[in-house]
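Q: What would this chain look like folded?
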Amino acid sequence: MVQEVMPRGEVLRCARVHRVGPVLLGVACVAALSAVLGGVRFPVPSLESGAGTVGVPFRRELPLVSAVFLTALWSGPMSAHEQGAADTFHRLRARLLAWTSLAAAVLSLLTEALTVGWPMGLVFVRSLAIWWGLAMLSLRLLGPHLAWVLPLGSAFPLVWFTGGALDWTSAGPGDARFWALAAASLALGTAGLAWTPWYSHALRHRCRRMSRHR
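A: My prediction, written as C-alpha cells:
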C-alpha cells in the first residue's frame, strides 16, 4: 500500500492560505492579556445574587476569545471552494487543524502556568477546548461570520450562575466531568467541520455501491 505524502511546500502554502501565523499570534495576544489582566474582576449581573452583580476574573472568559480566533482558519477567501475538495486536501486540513489547536493549547497553558500556576493553566486549556468545539460547530451550522454565536451563547449561563455546578470555568482542573465535556465538544465540532458536501456525496456514493453488491 503506497502512502500519499503531501510535499512540504504544499503544507506551508496551505498554512499561509489558512492564516495559521496570524491566528496563533492572536491566541498568543489573548494569552498575554490573560497574564497581565486575567486576575482583574469585571462586574456582571448574576441571577444567584438576587439581581445584583458578581466579579468574574477576565481569565475565565478569555479562552472564548481564543476559540473564536481559531475559527479564522476556515474563513478564508477559498473556504467555500474547499468544501468540494477531495480527500487528500481534507486530510491535510485535518492535520493543520490538529497541529494549530495543539499549538494554541500549549501557548495558553505555558503562559497561564508561568503566570498563575499549572492548575489554572489546565482550566484555561479545558475552557479553550470546550469553546473551540462549540465554535467549530457554530461555524458549520451558521457560517464563518457567526462562529462566535454558540460559544458566546454558552457563556451567558456561566456568568449568570457563576461558580455553579455547570460552570467549567471555575471548576478545578481535576473535574473529570468537564474534561469529558471538552472531549465531546471537540469531537462534535471536528465532526461538523469534516461533514463537507464532498464527504456527504462520497458517503452517499459508497452506500449506493454497497447496496448494489448485496
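DSSP finds nine helices and two strands in the chain.
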